[in-house]
TrEMBL record, chain A:
Keywords: Signal. This is Sugar ABC transporter substrate-binding protein. Coiled coil: none annotated. It comes from Streptomyces montanisoli. It holds the Pfam family SBP_bac_1. Residues 1-24 form the signal peptide. The keyword Phosphoprotein does not apply.
TrEMBL record, chain B:
It is found in: Cell membrane. Keywords: Cell membrane, Membrane, Transmembrane, Transmembrane helix, Transport. It comes from Streptomyces montanisoli. Residues 97-289 form the ABC transmembrane type-1 domain. Residues 18-29 have a biased composition (Basic residues). Gene3D superfamilies: MetI-like. This is Carbohydrate ABC transporter permease. Residues 1-30 are annotated as: Disordered. GO terms for cellular component: plasma membrane. The chain crosses the membrane at residues 39-57, 101-123, 135-156, 168-188, 209-234, 268-289. PROSITE patterns: ABC_TM1. The keyword Aminoacyl-tRNA synthetase does not apply. Its main location: membrane.
Amino acid sequence: MRRRTLLGGAAATAAAAASSSLLTGCGASGDGSGVPTLDFLSLAWQKESMAANKALVAQWNKNHPEVHVRYVQGSWDNVHDQLLTSFEGGAAPDIIHDEAIDLTDFGYGGYLADLTDLIPADLRRRIPDSAWATSRFGGGLYGVPFLQEPWVLIANRTLLDRAGIALPTEERPWSWAEFEDVAKELTHHGSGGAERFGTAWAMKSPVNATVNLSMSMGGRILYRRKDGTPEVRLGAADSAFPELIRRQVRTDRTASPSALGMGGGDTLPGFFAGRYAMLPLGFSYRQQVQQQAPDHFDWVTLPLPVGTRAPDGGRAQGVSPQTLSVAKSCPHPKEAAAFIAFMTQTAHLVQLARGDWLVPTGDAALHDPSLNTAKDGWSTGVAVAQHLTASPVLGMRGYPEWKDKIATPALQRYYSGGTDLDGLRGQLVRDGNRIFERYRN
Amino acid sequence: MSSTATPARDTSAAPHARAGRRPPRRRTAGRLAGRTGQYLALLCYVVFLAFPLLWLVSTAFKSPQELGSVDPTWLPRHPTLANFRTAIDEQPLLRSALNSLLVSVVTAVVSVTIAVPAAYVMVRFRSVVSRLGTGWVLVSQMFPFVLVIIPLFLVLKNLHLVDSLPGLIIVYVVWNLPFALWMLQGYVKAVPMSLEEAASIDGCGRLRTLHSVVLPLLVPGLVATLMFSFVTAWNEFFFALVLLKSPEKQTMSVILTHFLGAEGAADLGPLAAASVLATLPSLLFFAFLQKRLVSGAMTGAVKG
């Protein structure tokens, strides 16, 4: 993240030096045949997902000889730096697979094409307004949201059954209070058996999770003033979710303290060994569970608990979907938009969603029978997806700096007991708003 | 050394003096224990150094279930080649390895070819210019690559060298050169001037002296610099990521990141398998040059 800041500074310096001629007329290449070639930077990384993407590109090239698309493999690990450098150098890929949260800097920076007038009407209708809102800011539309990841509970069914706990359903999910009670029942400390925690919060990168899941309790943490500028607040509704995690870790001891420093995948070995009974995780982690779980390990995907007295029945979650964008430097934006429309056709959305173990944004795709099956928890994710809404962090300039410099260390200290709620509020709000202030105008 | 050893062999020494000395068997046992301790310490050190590599190899042969186990084992319980098959099927490892090999070998050879005469001049022809040059080389090492990457990208773009292996090689040579120069300066300094003077008296010109007298003595330095340049180019990631756009030109270090997902998720087995394959050329390169390094060190021994 430090590199991102440094690189951002370097980019700003170099931008002044870069001639405008470098920033135009690049991004697409030809092979000498006169057929324009568009580079599609894909971040698909799982085997099924890569296969699905490559198959769709091959299908496009077969059916559209007038525009050739070249599949370029990228990596989530470094896509921001790679794109920033290639944008500045005027050699960016034409069609870009990324995440809505990453579009803010690039959209405001003038690197992405405004898709408002480029996308066809049927594509506009395929995806609901709540999803379009994730990629619209500053008066422009900078990406087509196509896949999204809700949070769910992945639970050890054997342990829950043994404790006589009735599983929640999509129609009747647990409240957060019920989840805390269940976690207490499943926790086992002391002698006479292996230590077990009811749950484990993987909070290596705590900010997105905290902000997005606060929405289920009616909080947001990040707000917009009337003039559209960001503001950090930590009222009672905003702090309810962080307080819950802290209570489980520090007071009730129903959540593992060591898991706070882990990424989602790091908690899985403990889950398989029965040390954690339930894991709140992103929907795509089912793929790792399915692949790595020992034989006869019985697991189940449950809806995330809901808040009481919160909008949308407490089922709302913030989300930052995966997106497809067009670089402003692309000399064939209409063709690029046509390719995106092709990739996001309902059948293709389903194909891509299954490949990535994610939920599609398209209404019709969500009703596809292959996604509405209880197998591997697909139907749970589809049910939760109805309540997904744009994450409060989207479209906020200065968010990456606030997240890296202020919110991440402050939340990690709070969760691990290094500071109290007042300390957290002081850092998040006072120091945070100073940062956002610098990004005004 | 021989003068201090003589009294010990003096058989006419007084019996009580001999009685104070350890008998040969005990001395041999002590030496054996000492040597065993040395080897044990060496073994510990080698294991410490090799542990990451051994763990990588072990991981590459484990099944997803074993990788997800909370109790990791040193050796795979059920060794499998599936990770290697997946890695090779999913990503163009062979092509990227060839790209990396080409880039690394050319970078190493060009860097050393330029650095040798430069280092010689900087050491043997001391002047304001050489001192300024040395200082500038040092200063150039202080710029982090994130600071130079965008201007560099623009320069290469103007030269039509973006997305080309020669462009990447030029960047690597420029990036490696200062350190190679510093390394070689030390080796050149170690070559006694008297040898060059003797060669000069024998009628050798400057080039002949460099070729026939200095270069053979620099072999250990050349090998060390070659190794350094090769490994640096082989492992380098960020320049390759940014400068190479075409999939068919990407190098091994970039391809390895394709096994990584968002938020630290990774396809661990295939990643480990691909990493093992990526390590092999470096190991072979070292194995090949190691003899040269040692024999070069012998060659460099000069009678005072």
